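Issue 218. Parser rejects a valid record. Input:
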Amino acid sequence: MNDVLNRKRADKKSLPFFLKNSFKVSFIIIFISLILLITTFSFDAVPPILNRGIQPATFPKALLVLIIFLTSVVYILSLKKPWKEGKILPKAFYITLYNFILFIIIAKNLDFFLAISILSFSLSYSWGEKNFLYLLAVSIIFPIIIFIFFETILGLRFPSGIITNFYYN
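Output the parser choked on:
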């Protein structure tokens, strides 16, 4: 009896799978993604005469299915190699959050294309890349690839802004 009272808690490995952090995080991501995926089935279909590229619900559906699939893969991998438990988040995490807030502000007020360029430059730099030429190449080539993909392949227009107005006008 004294041995039971002296033990503070069970071993982490002896916990049921649904009490482990990897399951909790994966379950929450998949649950929210499933709710959003179900919501996309209520989107109205665009008539063929107005349809440019894909239907409005197709891209969110594909993205949510991809998120569910990749989350499942991460969970399966976490069963083989458990996550490390850290007490404090690294500095790069907070810099990344700041960069995404900056991205939203620039995309809303100035230009979406400019925001993608600044985001790709600042994220690459904050995650450890110090070669300026590489950073410059990433901040130019990556947004151009995104622009070509959305504009020509998917047939979707970027919102108007400083740089995109040069292309559209």
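Fixed in the parser; the record now loads. Residues 91-168 form one domain.
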